[in-house]
Amino acid sequence: MKVEIYSDIACPWCYIGKRRFEQALAGFEGRAGVEVVYRPYQLVPDAPEAATPHRAWLAERYGPQSVAMDARVTELGRAEGITYDFDTALHTNTFLGHRLLHLALAEYGAEVQGALKEGLLKAHFSDGADIGDRARLTEIAVAAGLDGERVAGYLAGEEGVEEVRAQLAEARELGISAVPTFVFEGKWAVQGGQEAETFRKVLEQVAAETSALVQAAPDADSCADGACAV
Question: Which part of the chain is the DSBA-like thioredoxin domain (predicted)?
Answer without folding.
Answer: 3-203
